[in-house]
């Protein structure tokens, strides 16, 4: 458990299989309950019912790509399945829920607001990456923080995860932090899902530049935007049909519509979600201009807790809402999280 007894905290150490096994064993009861709840709640989120049998052909395609491009994560999946007492296909399903849902065109009000600030040596300020986590499916109860220490490597990571995911967002001991936003466009095909790509980057890169190089070698499954921050620089990048566009910035801000001119015409976000995305982008940018360079963790959480950046619960499981807010400090190797609505919860802190 976490130091404060709130967000579950799972320490994992060893080879990839052992890391997966420890994760699965620690979360076995929760993962069984999640899978038994309408197949990880997919039945309440997709337009047509799904089953493991109907999904297996699609899962095979993803598994082949994942095993080829990220063999360590494929082995970790075997460990997760064994530790939790679930099948490998069920472990795969947990990694691919967002890809299985595909484009969601129902009106929505949120899907993550992310920003970073590069360090300012003159002002003595540390780099920071912060974001809301806006998801549908009422995933508050699936939130967990993983500490990953792979055998034979000095690099360690803190990863925010949901429902058995091997990766989502996080920070590593070399000082690289990565956040993300959903953007919709292009064809979604069997490949490495971006959540696992982020974990792969945390395992294999020390800087923004290295992370971009590693990412370019992966067959990515679907569109996303990633925000990256290390000890010296920050940037956001957008992914569409396997193509990547990188935008360096001292203070990158991203929500859920494409910003790079090469990709804007391919945006598939519905008009309601786009209006929300634009509003959150403007609000966050304006708030950051007023936030002092030396702002502390509490001040970043205050920004993330303010509407429209913090998205309220409407009671509709299909609609995204803020299920957590996170502040990452890459120079210190720290992950700070407020579960649920960040305006109503306490900060829980984890450190490498």
Protein topology:
Blueprint: E1 9-14, H1 16-26, H2 28-36, H3 38-41, H4 52-69, H5 71-84, H6 88-95, H7 97-101, E2 114-117, E3 128-135, E4 143-150, E5 156-162, E6 169-172, E7 177-181, H8 194-204, H9 208-215, E8 224-229, E9 234-240, E10 243-248, E11 253-254, H10 271-290, H11 297-304, E12 321-329, E13 334-339, E14 348-351
Parallel strand pairs: 1-4
Antiparallel strand pairs: 2-3, 2-11, 3-12, 4-5, 5-6, 6-7, 7-8, 8-9, 9-10, 12-13, 13-14
What can you tell me about this protein's structure?
The strands form two sheets. An eight-stranded mixed beta sheet has the order 1-4-5-6-7-8-9-10, covered by helices on one side. Strands 11-2-3-12-13-14 form a six-stranded antiparallel beta sheet, with helices on one face. It starts with 8 loop residues before the first strand and ends with a strand. β8 and β9 form a beta hairpin. Helices cover 33% and strands 23% of the residues. The protein is an alpha+beta fold and 352 residues long. The model has no long low-confidence stretch (mean pLDDT 95). α4 crosses α6. The protein contains eleven helices and 14 strands. The chain is globular and about 55 Å long.
């Amino acid at each position: 458990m976490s130091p404060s007894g709130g967000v579950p905290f799972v320490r994992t150490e060893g080879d990839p299989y052992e890391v997966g096994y420890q994760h699965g064993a620690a979360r076995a009861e929760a993962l069984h309950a999640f899978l038994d709840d309408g197949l990880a709640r997919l039945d309440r989120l997709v337009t047509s019912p799904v089953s493991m049998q109907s999904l297996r052909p699609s899962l095979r395609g993803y598994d082949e790509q994942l095993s080829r491009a990220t063999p360590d994560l494929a082995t970790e999946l075997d460990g997760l399945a064994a530790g939790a007492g679930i099948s490998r296909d069920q472990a795969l399903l947990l990694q691919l829920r967002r890809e299985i849902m595909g484009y969601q065109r129902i009106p929505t009000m949120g899907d993550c607001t992310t920003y970073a600030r590069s360090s300012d040596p003159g002002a003595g300020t540390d780099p920071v990456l912060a974001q809301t986590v806006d998801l549908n499916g009422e995933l508050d109860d699936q939130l967990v923080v993983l500490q990953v220490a792979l055998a034979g490597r000095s690099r360690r990571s803190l990863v925010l995860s949901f429902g058995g995911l091997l990766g989502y967002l996080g920070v590593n001991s070399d000082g690289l932090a990565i956040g993300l936003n959903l953007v919709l466009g292009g064809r979604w095909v069997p490949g490495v899902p971006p959540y696992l790509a982020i974990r792969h980057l945390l395992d294999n890169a020390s800087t923004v530049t290295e992370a971009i190089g590693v990412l370019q070698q992966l067959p990515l499954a679907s569109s996303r935007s990633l925000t990256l921050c290390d000890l010296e620089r920050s940037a956001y990048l957008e992914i569409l049909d396997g193509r990547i566009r990188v935008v360096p910035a001292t203070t990158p801000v991203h929500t859920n519509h494409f910003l790079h001119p090469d990709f804007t015409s391919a945006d598939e976000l519905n008009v309601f979600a786009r209006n929300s995305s634009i509003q959150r982008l403007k609000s966050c940018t304006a708030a950051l201009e007023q936030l002092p360079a030396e702002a502390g963790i509490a001040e970043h959480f205050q920004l993330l807790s303010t509407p429209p950046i913090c998205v309220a619960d409407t009671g509709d499981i299909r609609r995204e809402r803020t299920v957590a807010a996170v502040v990452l400090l890459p120079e210190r190797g720290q992950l700070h999280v407020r579960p649920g609505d960040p305006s109503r919860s306490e900060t829980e802190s984890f450190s490498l």
